[in-house]
Input
Amino acid sequence: MSTATHKLLKGATGEWEMVIGMEIHAQVTSNSKLFSGASTAFGGEPNSHVSLVDAAMPGMLPVINEECVRQAVRTGLGLNARINLRSVFDRKNYFYPDLPQGYQISQYKSPVVGEGEVLVELDGGRSVSVGIERLHLEQDAGKLLHDRSPTMTNVDLNRSGVALMEIVSKPDIRDAEQAKAYVTKLRSILRYLGTCDGDMEKGSLRADVNVSVRKPGAPLGTRCEIKNMNSINFIGQAIEFEARRQIEILEDGGVIDQETRLYDPNKGETRSMRSKEEAHDYRYFPDPDLLPLEFSQSFVDELKAELPELPDQKKARFVADFGLSAYDASVLVAERESAVFYETVLDKLANRARDGKMAANWVINELFGRLNKEGRDITGSPVSSEQLAAIIDLIGEGTISGKIAKDLFEIVWQEGGDPRALVESRGMKQVTDLSAIEKVVDDIIAANPDKAAQVKDKPQSLGWFVGQVMKSSGGKANPQAVNELLKSKLGI
Amino acid sequence: MTDLTSLTLAEARKGLADKTFTSLELTDAHLSAIEKARVLNAFVMETPDQARSMAREADAKIAKGDAGPLAGIPLGIKDLFATKGVRTTACSKILGNFVPTYESTITSQLWRDGAVMLGKLNNDEFAMGSANETSCFGPVGNPWRREGSNTTLVPGGSSGGSASAVAALLCMGATATDTGGSIRQPAAFTATVGIKPTYGRCSRWGIVAFASSLDQAGPIARSVRDSAMLLRSMAGHDPKDTTSVDIAVPDYEASIGKSVKGMKIGIPKEYRLDGMPAEIEKLWSEGAAWLKAAGAELVEVSLPHTKYALPAYYIVAPAEASSNLARYDGVRYGLREQGKTIIEQYENTRARGFGAEVRRRVMIGTYVLSAGYYDAYYLRAQKVRTLIKKDFEDCFAKGVNAILTPATPSAAFGIGEKGGADPVEMYLNDIFTVTVNMAGLPGIAVPSGKDAQGLPLGLQLIGRPFEEETLFSLGEVIEQAAGRFTPARWW
Output
């Protein structure tokens, strides 16, 4: 259900539309694995987080980790999705050395979460709604290590059995930009919920991307699946490449083979991994070791009541309560940490209603701008929420001007310290005392009699006088007070 | 002093409590019986040192007066149960010399209650078989022979080692497992008592899986009372097995000798097979008569979907097995046969590690689960299963307390006599027992008589879910009427 216009690709025979669906594998944030008590900690010595169940020892049985179920339900709720009170774990059977049981416990016909929806923001205030087909729980596999022996492959089962959520979108995505924005938004929701850390570098979030092309309005084309994407930028590049590859084939009179492909970021191209004929027959059937997963509506309701505020809600609240623009609000809520920082600043402000919007500007323009320039993220900001709130208070109450505030910000960034004390000790205070400014005003008027005469006919030239006064006061004069004083002295 | 091996478990318990003999003496008597009976091939691993040390421990506890319910009782353990530090193979080459670092829930409960482990018992490879002929350790001999014959007969399967060892007085009781009749059929072939409890009554944790939705452990013992004593220790909820049920375990022994007066016993007409031997027919009527004499009421009942049970079972069980046995891949433990590629390694390992019957069932199971066949086979078999379950439910809803059937369609047969050309001939052995697994119900096999050749025959009682006590009460009535049967020693 696209409300935004999307990018079409130009081919020799006209324009082509991309149709994209995604399967996101998100590692569930939990202390222990989906069906065993082993730790899920990242980066342990190989095979140091492996229980008897994870190693598929004879006679071992899986026992569901309820926290993983709660995390899946929370995520479902965050995706505005239907929660299924009864779902079933199935076995997906295939042989691979990283899969000790010889099957992955997954959910096939009856997933724990059904249809939902994600609102995805695009540039220029556009947005698109992407449907969620389902979310199910499944086990991760182990890892093969090929570099430990010249003749053998070793297996590390630390990840074997770690809980994953597979989040399947509907084929509602229409171009690479939307695809990237969808993953970004989904990751943001997961992080807000605390159900997945979203760390793509560590593999906590991986995407399989299904791409097909068609003439606008034509029926769906044959799709190819690009497996295991672990970077949002690569996802965009892979989609562009894959769509163009398919268009070229179709325009040459060829047909698309339904197949699984891999993206090579070095070459910037996708290549075939296996064809449909080579696809496994997974022989899914309900896992007889596990009873169907059943919980009550009140279990769901309790989780819903405890759900944190999600980006969409937060954005709406920022707009309504502080008069932020939709764009600024989006920027603030995109990452949970940024939103948290902004809200901490708000909490510490003396007058939130008056200065809330100014705080947003400062967070976005000064702080984010400076952080971006230095390639840091918000958690590594040298200016704390407390310091920033103090700077904004000083502006709001008229102690310093916006211009001085920028200098103060720079000092705090470089040297740290209490902004209020710095203003005192470095004499940055705005001069509001009229008698102190009066002399300067009088001098400037006296030195520029022509301009003083003109100003009555050209009131807009008052600005020149204000600028002169500010300049000679070192920016510390209160512009408001200067303005008033000049008006009365010049008789306008 | 009488031969200590000829005591029932209940008698031995009394002797130990009265300090007539020690557990060490009782254990030694059995260890020496095992040594003399190696020709039966019932044990695949003897653990005399462990047995004696456990016996001494039990004696110390008895002396202190804090003896558990099975203190000092020497038992045999089917090789399907993981025993910590003791080789566990499921009698398959593919597990090689696998030594678990863990103890199955059931055996830990037996040791908790003071029992002594004599060793590991032979069984059909991965419990797949009805004659104990598929074990990688070779077939097990039945202590029973046809009168005037030297032919060694099978003890039934898959718990053939358990049944043979108990019948030959090599252990006072044994653990066993039953997926389609693997406790009850060997019990019937050896004149021992075997009970498969309700699905979920005993934990499956630490038992090598065959077909998870059908597998259930239980004891094979010398008497109904002995089986009740053993089941009490084996049963119970286990948080490590989510299919185990959290219902308190009753004192099963208390149901021995309880009146069965007024109980309604169903006689299912569909179990009256065409061409059923007259001896089986006669045994069945006799059993019914004994129960009637004890005050039970007999009613004819109908279980209309019985004839579909065996075909459906031979879809469901292999399907689950094909998946359960996928973990035996030569990667982490057990046999590994190298290959040039990982696929070749899998193929070599599994082709050489699994025996013919296991390979057959893995292939059947893989086939019935594959794309395009799933609905026609697996899904349909599950529907049949639901109907079979409903047959029993309808019957119990009419007030029937238990159902009486023959345990097997024949007495024990000779090693190599059946199933050579047609595996189905062997599968037919389970005809009276598989329905019980498909419905998840408890069933007990009790020795009830002998055929014309002097071989034991058994009757089966099928109960309502979690009403094993009814089966013990009724079983004991049959036992009292039929008497006990002991084979003449030829080994």
